[in-house]
Design brief:
Chains A, B: It is an enzyme of class 1 (oxidoreductase). Chains A, B: InterPro entries: Class-I_Pyr_Nuc-Dis_Oxidored, FAD/NAD-bd_sf, FAD/NAD-binding_dom, FAD/NAD-linked_Rdtase_dimer_sf, Pyr_nuc-diS_OxRdtase, Pyr_nucl-diS_OxRdtase_dimer, Pyr_OxRdtase_I_AS. Chains A, B: This is Mycothione reductase. Chains A, B: It comes from Pseudoclavibacter albus. Chains A, B: It holds the Pfam family Pyr_redox_2. Two copies of one chain form a homodimer. In chain A, the strands form five sheets. In chain A, strands 1, 2, 5, 6, 7, 8, 19 and 20 form an eight-stranded mixed β-sheet that branches. Chain A has a five-stranded parallel β-sheet with strand order 10-17-11-12-13, with helices on one face. Chain A is built from eleven helices and 25 strands. In chain A, helix 2 runs antiparallel to helix 3 and helix 2 crosses helix 4. By secondary structure, chain A is of the alpha/beta class. Chain A folds into three domains: 175 residues, FAD/NAD(P)-binding domain (3-Layer(bba) Sandwich), CATH 3.50.50; 105 residues, FAD/NAD(P)-binding domain, CATH 3.50.50; 108 residues, 2-Layer Sandwich (Enolase-like, domain 1). The termini of chain A are far apart. Strand 3 of chain A pairs antiparallel with strand 4 of chain B, so a sheet runs across the interface.
């Protein structure tokens, strides 16, 4: 029976756990993915954004025709060219990473199988090997939720498979209304696919209402939206997939993308059987050192990070948690201080079109929390950069506590939202108040950052 | 003879001086521009960026053909459509602003003439009116430098006139190598004009060497560059303008844009005759309250802001100085504290293509200043967003003091450089060290801000 000092299950953010600080430990990395390296690299953040960028250019050109006095022929994208370029790059990284973990370091071994915990210090692989360990990091991530009415197959996909299609779908149904569904809908629409998005409720629930309304209006102009309904039946024919909706509508598409939420992979791992504490969505409950809890108390020797351990389901959060876990392990080994301190607010960027970036509370949420909060909004169109964009719909909203000026949240929809948010994330993370934030620094004229500056100035007037 | 409590000469940033705080003062605003409102609004930052944006889209599409597996027909821009849209918007603002200053407020008068100071408390207008005043703000800005070999006319322009051409030039020579010349060259090239840029030395002197080299390489691919030479003779014919260069080359273009530096307008104002202190470029020397100096001492009742008072020649600096001047005037009136404190580093964005954003010292400048400085660079291509862009040439460089981690400068070339710079401007302005700056906040994955994050992490390792 093999024994390891440390086992890491999941090679997404988990793959960053082994490193120079743990070079004296015998470590087993476990990854049962089709491609080594987790969701972000292979089927998530990275490849999608590599498709989103060309799609966004196509969209900008389409807008340019109407708004910027430009005309052009149709932009024709070479789907296979994009796909092969993207996965030519990514698969090589995945394969290189796998090779390195398999044989690149004397203290690290790789197991490419699904595993199940049989105790706090033992696991069993799908092929029947039993492995013991002193310490464990659970980083098993999440997978797309499957829907009973839409069994996966040649025409019905998740993000795991849709980007590798041989041909760009002419007609695509996107099922879901969250960030992933909205990104894929905009991306395929930008590349010229005729998209319909079907979701049982509203788009992007949890995001600021004005932002959601702005996004939904933009989506309606660019692709078909069927909200408040769901697919009850899917019949695959030679011509495509015919979907029947709960509102009685029927439509036929070439392919379907199911992006209706994600299932935390702890269910396959046996963590329930070990009596560990779980959140409602299946993620493990952890303390500020990423140690998993049982009955509210940390379990010795077990950490969890990423989608296994939070409900944010964001790569930058998983990466941070992996760093915290490493330090906690080192502390457990007597080699470091315990990690301390909680990082500032978690930004979320929806790389759709329009792009959305947000952190913290909406005004309504702040009021619900009993805070004396105020909000200010600056439209892109109120600044010179917005004039350059000929923008008339996008905006920045910032929420702060009256008096103290503590930043409570920011909500941006529009071009470069994900970048424009960062000065506000930074201010909130380092405890900078809204008082003096705009006037305490230069904002180069006429860059898009003036939208943030002006929102801050308007907010400051209300404090 | 009319008398005013306050005269403001120049209605660019000077136009922000009159406001609620000075409503009890009788104020005269003087503007001798063809269009009311100064350079930025009428012939500078704002209209150029309104042309830059569509040009940038065209460039992105051209890049997309090569890099992003897309093909398209030629994008055809409607120059007159852009021009009429831009100036339809801007001229209306200028005219509305002029009307408001002329008759919108009982305490404000407008004089649309060139004026000359005859004493510290009197001016004379071109039409011969003499006006006295208690207090004066000089905000007369700057104008394009004219070149003897290139007399302005129907085919030889500056930024003051080129954007209003009836037809887009097919062939354009841009004379100069600074930010303005580089912006116009990229803009016209993006819109499909055949551009040659002619400059007596190198492009963008004063900017980080690696950034300049990267820019120059990109420029060479997109337009003709004649560096280290200058125009010695221009002959206008029916066919265009034939330029003879000092290196013996000869070339014919439809139009010429002279963008070879700017002359500070104090020369027309009589400030030399008043014995005020001037910088080498003609700008007035001011103290931290924007009070002009004579013999190193502040002159009672005279302030200067913007290009009249600094060598940055940037709108965000002028706007800041106008705010400082207002507070200083209020202090002089006994109604406010004196302004205090100096704002952090001044960012410069060159809205060319590629875009450049920079503040503070290069590593070489830091060493020249005797600082123990270190630098780190992160390429766009080293991040997931760079993969999405298929970027292989652009980068972020950050300079800090070893030990303290004090931010000394940052230098970015590439898409969205002007926005990416802001978290670093903010950190430098509020005295945040590089220590902990990257890891003390979330950077959403895989946004372009990760390039800045990674440069900070690399820099921190060297501190």
């Amino acid at each position: 029976m093999r024994h390891f000092d440390l086992v890491v299950i999941g090679a997404g953010s988990g793959n960053s756990i082994p490193g120079p600080a743990l070079v004296s430990e015998q470590i087993l990395v476990v990854d049962d993915g089709v491609h080594f390296g987790g969701t972000c690299l292979n089927v998530g953040c990275i490849p999608t954004k590599m498709f989103v960028h060309p799609a966004e250019i196509a969209h900008e050109v389409a807008e340019a025709r109407h708004v910027l006095n430009a005309t052009s022929g149709e932009i024709r994208y070479d789907w296979q060219g994009i796909r092969d370029r993207v996965f030519g790059r990514i698969d090589a990284i995945s394969e290189g990473g796998e090779e390195y973990r398999a044989s690149g370091e004397p203290n690290i071994s790789l197991l490419r199988e699904q595993v199940r915990l049989t105790s706090e210090h033992e696991l069993e692989s799908a092929s029947g090997e039993r492995i013991t360990f002193d310490r464990l990091v659970i980083a098993t991530g999440s997978r797309p939720r499957e829907l009973a009415a839409l069994p996966l197959g040649d025409r019905i996909h998740t993000n795991d498979t849709i980007l590798r299609l041989d041909n760009q779908p002419e007609r695509l149904a996107v099922i879901g209304g969250g960030a992933i569904a909205c990104e894929f809908a905009a991306m395929f629409a930008g590349l010229g696919t005729q998209v319909v998005q079907i979701h049982r409720s509203e788009l992007l629930r949890g995001v600021d209402d004005e932002v959601r309304a702005c996004f939904t209006e933009a989506a309606k102009r660019r692709w078909g939206l069927h909200l408040g309904t769901e697919v009850t039946r899917a019949v695959t024919t030679a011509d495509g997939v015919t979907l029947t909706l709960s509102n009685g509508d029927e439509l036929t598409v070439d392919h379907v993308l199911v992006a209706a939420g994600r299932v935390v992979n702890t269910d396959r791992l046996g963590t329930q059987e070990l009596g560990l504490d779980h959140r409602e969505n299946g993620a493990l409950v952890v303390d500020e050192q990423q140690r998993v809890l049982r009955g509210g108390e940390p379990v010795a020797g077990i950490w969890a990070v990423g989608d296994s351990a939070n409900t944010a389901q964001l790569k930058h959060v998983a990466n941070h948690e992996a760093r915290v876990a490493v330090q906690s392990i080192l502390h457990d080994l007597g080699r470091a201080e315990a990690p301390s301190g909680v990082l500032g607010p978690i930004p979320l960027v929806v790389f759709s079109s329009p792009q959305i970036a947000t952190f913290g509370r909406t005004l309504a949420e702040a009021h619900d929390d009993g805070l004396d909060a105020v909000e200010a909004r600056c439209d892109y169109g109120a600044t010179a950069w917005g004039w350059a964009l000929a923008d008339s719909e996008h905006f920045v909203k910032i929420v702060a506590e009256r008096g103290s000026g503590t930043l409570l949240g920011a909500h941006i929809i529009g071009p470069d939202a994900g970048i424009l948010l960062q000065p506000l994330v930074q201010a909130a993370s380092f405890g900078q108040s809204v008082h003096g934030l705009a006037r305490g620094q230069y904002w180069p004229h006429p860059a898009a950052t003036e939208i943030v500056e002006n929102a801050l100035l308007k907010l400051e007037e209300q404090l």
